[in-house]
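In response to reviewer comment 3 from the previous cycle, which asked for concrete evidence that the modeling workflow produces usable outputs, we include below a single protein chain processed end to end. The sequence was submitted unchanged, and the resulting structure tokens are shown without manual editing.
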Amino acid sequence: MCCSVGFARSLGLALLPLSLCSILVNLLLLFPMGDTTYAQQDRLASYIWLFGGLAGGGLLMLIPGVVFITLGKCRCCWNESLTMCGSVLAAVVGLMGAGYCFVISGFTLLQGPQCFTSYGWSYPFADQKGRYLFEPETWSRCLQPLGIVEWNVTLLFVLLCLAVLEFIICLLQLGNGVVNAICRPCCYKQEYSLNA
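The workflow returned the following structure tokens.
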């Protein structure tokens, strides 16, 4: 169990900075180029308000991060198999959070930013199903906020990458926890029978 707990703790230590980065990136999406005006006037892409990075990749990801780090610290009330079952549940929460972050970031990327164009405030790339991502010459349609397409594309791509990393880490702990929760009692029985 010692190796699996150490592995889980290292996964938890990897999750914490990833979740903090997700929170930071989502906050940056709310304030394009540091300007609060667009958030106050509700001029941001509608999916940004679903807080994929803040809620899913950030706050929800803190749960498995803390659980993984604290595994094995309380030996008085839990046996080792139950501890690993708890880490499996936390990993499932983390998988849901990472999945939520990935889906919301993907939809936001496909929708494109809300920006001021020559026709007023609109979503000039919403009907393109993401093709605008490969046509940077069309990004100049957005007149305000200045550089909003680059801002959103960069930050949403970062959120997608963070969500994938978080998903992989939680998936690793899910496998680790399941194997140890199921196999560990069998290993103890074999150890006792060998010592008898």
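The chain has five helices and two strands. We consider this sufficient to address the reviewer's concern, and the full set will be provided in the supplementary archive.
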